[in-house]
C-alpha cells in the first residue's frame, strides 16, 4: 500500500511539473520519479513554478488547438487492436463453433473480412506497411534480414546499432565518448506523426519496427526489433551442471554451473565490454539447493529469491560491470528446470530495463519508465516469447505458455492504461502472442504434422482454440470501454498455415547448377561459407527472397544486369513455380514473383530479385534461411515451430473486424493509414499507396 501511495504522489508531482490535457498521459510523472540529484530537483521546482504561473495561457492554447484539430474529424476516437498472425479461417471456424461471442458481434453488426497482406507476408514488412501506408519499395523493409552486398552476410533489416562516434584510447582500453549510435532502417512516415502534427493525440504500444523510437506529438513504446542487452534479437542461456560441448543451433548458449562446497556458481552472459577489450561481460550468481523443499535459493548481485522446480522468478535486475565506472543493466527471468540429479536454470534473454533504459525504447524516454513505475518491470525485447528455447527443448510447452501469457498480461495492462488516457484521438497496440503461439502449437491443430505424430489426437491440447478465446475476451473488454463515437478495428498483419515440410531452395539451386560450391564440397555451412561465388548465379537467404549474383552489385557478381538478369529471372520462375514434393506430390511453390513488378519506390534496389511463394504446408527450410546448402531439397519439419505464414501471400490474408460497417470488398493492410488520416479530417499525402475506406458511423457515412 505504501508503494502504491508513493507512486500516486510521484505521479501527482509530475502532473504539477508538466500539466497535460485530460486525454493525454501523466507520463512525465515517471520522469520526475527518477530525478534524484539536488540540482535536478531544484530545476524541476523552478519549472513547476513557471508551469503553474503560465498554466492558464497554455491551457487555453491547447484547448483552441485541440478544437481546431478535431473540428474536421468524423470520429472522436479510433482504436486499432493488432493481433499478429490472427487467421481469418480459424476466426471464422471458431465463431461458427460459438467460441468467440465478441468477435461474432463485430462480424454480425459491423465488419469481418480477410485483410490483404504484403509481399512477402512477414511481420516487419506488413506492420511497416500498416504504419506508413506504402509498399516496401517506399519503406525499405523486405524481411527480418537484409544482405550485405560486399560480404553476402546478413544484417538486421530494421535497425543498426554501432558504437559511439568518438573513442578515447588509454592503454588497452578504449573509452566510449557518448552513447551508441542507433539508426532506424525503415523509411516512410508513420501516420501518427501526421496526426500528432495536426494536434491529434496518439498512443502507440508495441507496434513492430518502431525501434529506435521517433519523436512525434504522442507516446510510443517500441515493439518488434527492440534488441536484448547483447544487441541480439533474443539470446537465452541454459546454466547447467551437465557436461556438453554441443551448441544450440538457434538463439541460445550453454553456461556451466560449477560446484563449490554447498554452493553452485554460474553467470549470465552479457554484452561485449564497452572498453574495447573484446571481453564478454558477465553477471555472476550463486545457487544453493534445498533438496528437502525441492527448491533453489539464488543470489545475483544482492538480489535474492527462491524458486521451486518448474517455477519462474519475477523480473530480476541483472547488472554487468565493465570497470572504470562503466556498467550495463537489464532485467531477466530465471526458471528452475531441475535440481537432481543435475542442476539446470534457464535464463531469459536479458531485456533492456524499462525503468532504467540503456537504449531508448520509448518516446518520450520517460514513457517506458512511467509504465515500469505503474506496473512493474516488463519485457521490452521485440521477440519476447522465447520460441528458440521451446524449439531447442530447453523449455517445455507449459513453461513457454506461462512466459508468453505473462508477457501478454503485461501488455494488456499497458494497453488499457493507454486506452483510458486516450479518450480522444488514436490508440493502437499490437499483441504478439497470437503469432508466437500459432508458430509453436500448430502441430496439435494439424491432422498429421511430423512434429506431433507421436501425440494421439484425443490427447492433444487445445492451445490455439484457447488462444482465440482469450483474444475474444480481450476484444470484449475493449468494446465495453468504447462509445458510439469510437471506431474499433481489429486487424492482423497476415494469417497462418501449417509448416510441415521444409524446402531448401539453396539445395535446389545447387542441384540445378545455379549455385556452385568450392572444389570438394558437397554441402556448405551457414551463411554460404563454402560457396564459390565466381560460379554462382543465384542464391537465397531469409524467408522468401531469391537473389541473383549480379555483376557490379554483389562483390563477386557474374550475372550481367539487364537482358541476362531478366532472362535468368524468367528461367528460375518457370522452373520453380509448381515445384512438387516427390514424397507427397503436393506443390511446394505456388508462385514466384518478380519484385520489379510488385514494388515501386526509391528503395526497390534493396529488394530481392524474386519472391518465392510457398504452398500450403511448406516453407523455406531452417538451413535455407541461414544460407546453408544441403543435399536434401524437401524434408519433414519436426520442430515445435510448426505453423508459419512466410508463404504465398495469397494463402495467408490477415483479419479485419470493425464495430462499424466498412464498404470495401478487398481491404488491404496498406489502406489503414489513409483511412485513419481521413477519419480525422487530414488531407492525404500524395505518395500513399493505400486507399481510404468508406465507413458507416452512427450518424453518417465516412468516405
Radius of gyration (CA) equals 26 Å
| Tally of separate helices | 18
Largest beta sheet: what is the strand line-up? 2-34-25-1-24-9-10-23
Query: How far apart, in Å, are the first and last alpha carbons?
Result: 51 Å
- Assess the beta-strand content as a share of residues: 15-25%
Question: What general form does the structure show?
Answer: globular
Number of strands: 37
Task: Describe the overall structure.
There is one protein chain. The chain is built from 18 helices and 37 strands. It is an alpha+beta fold. It has four domains: 69 residues, no CATH class; 267 residues, Alkaline Phosphatase, subunit A (3-Layer(aba) Sandwich); 121 residues; 144 residues, Gyrase A, domain 2, CATH 3.30.1360. An eight-stranded mixed β-sheet has the order 2-34-25-1-24-9-10-23, sandwiched between helices. A five-stranded antiparallel β-sheet has the order 13-14-15-16-17, with no helix packed on it. α8 runs parallel beside α18 and α12 runs antiparallel to α13. The longest helix is centred in the first third of the chain and has 33 residues. The two termini are 51 Å apart.
